[in-house]
Design goal:
222 residues; alpha+beta; Arc Repressor Mutant, subunit A; 3-stranded antiparallel β-sheet
Length: 222
């Protein structure tokens, strides 16, 4: 176990608080099975946390966050991005911290409960997949812009009835672009759905959720 822990502490954690069994095995120069066994022993001693099969985290690392796990939730040909209330929270648009990390994907996936947090996935059409920017951590993850995160909320609320029909108090950043949000609405192919989403944006604007004066830099992960 000592060999793999030395590799983890010296080679992997300086780059990211989350890593895979394969990365640990390669850094330690040992087999995958031996790395898995030794990492499991380290987890039993509370030195590491097993997030899911093949994925480990040093939760005491100063840069650890459940968001750091997101890039490890997908296979090489899959992808997803943090959006909805989670993205608004990261951007500092709202003070309330969502209970789960909300991720947009191209296919439906079941909710994933892990020792470091619960991840819920929401399917969106390929044409509407995007509007993201890398959030700069040790291992960046894809984060929806405030405009796209709000669009995703309006889109899902129009499709799923009461889901996301009530929003917590939000303050849009001074550089919030209504043009960008409307451009996403225009990409909705189904006309009734496009009208419903546009109406939800109009209703949200009419409730006084106006763009405030600049608030300084956007929020940070907690």
């Amino acid at each position: 176990m000592r060999k793999v822990l030395e590799a983890v502490w010296k080679s992997l954690l300086p780059r990211s608080p989350v890593f895979t069994t394969a990365e640990a095995a390669d850094a330690a120069g040992i087999s995958l099975s031996n790395a898995s066994r030794d990492l499991a022993k380290a987890a039993e001693r509370n030195l590491l946390t097993r997030v899911r099969r093949g994925v480990w985290a040093a939760t005491q690392h100063p840069d650890f966050s459940a968001y750091a796990v997101v890039p490890y939730l997908f296979r090489s040909k899959e992808s997803g991005y943090v959006s909805l209330l989670s993205a608004l929270s990261v951007h500092g648009v709202m003070e309330q911290i969502p209970r789960n990390v909300q991720v947009m994907t191209l296919r439906q996936r079941p909710k994933l409960r892990t020792p470091v947090g619960t991840f819920e996935f929401h399917k969106i059409q390929g044409k509407l997949f995007g509007g993201i920017e890398p959030y700069q951590m040790m291992r960046p993850f894809d984060l929806a812009t405030p405009e796209k995160a709000l669009f995703d909320i309006l889109y899902l609320s129009a499709r799923r009835g009461r889901r996301f029909s009530a929003l917590p108090e939000i303050e849009l950043p001074a550089d919030f672009s209504e043009v960008a949000l409307l451009s996403w609405i225009e990409k909705i192919e189904l006309r009734p759905l496009r009208i419903a989403v546009a109406q939800r944006w109009d209703n949200l604007s009419e409730r006084g959720r106006e763009i405030p004066e600049p608030r300084g830099r956007r929020g940070q992960l907690v």
